[in-house]
Specification:
Distance between the termini: 28 Å
Number of helices: 1
Largest sheet: 5 strands, antiparallel
Helix content: under 10%
Radius of gyration: 15 Å
Structural class: mainly beta
Amino acid sequence: MNNATVIENPGDCPTGTTPYPTYTWQFEVTGMADVTGNGGSPFPGPVPLQICVGGGPDLKYSNITLVFTNLADNTPSAATSHFGGQPIHGVVTKVRSGAGDEHDR
């Protein structure tokens, strides 16, 4: 992702789904991203992407959510056409503080 915008304490990140604990979004990164998978790019050129990172009271940065968004003219990008507007959620399971130093969370 090049020339991305970073927003602290964003208000437009997707909400978490129950029964998961609530978390607070710490920052959001938006911009055009080159996406690759299985050794190649499934989409022609960069696509608009929103990345939200947040956490809870015990771990400030524990959750990440990716949302492929529409193009600037509000038409669907190739990624939005593929994934829809559905958020893709992820959770941190290991923290690495140094080379080879992993800790389960």
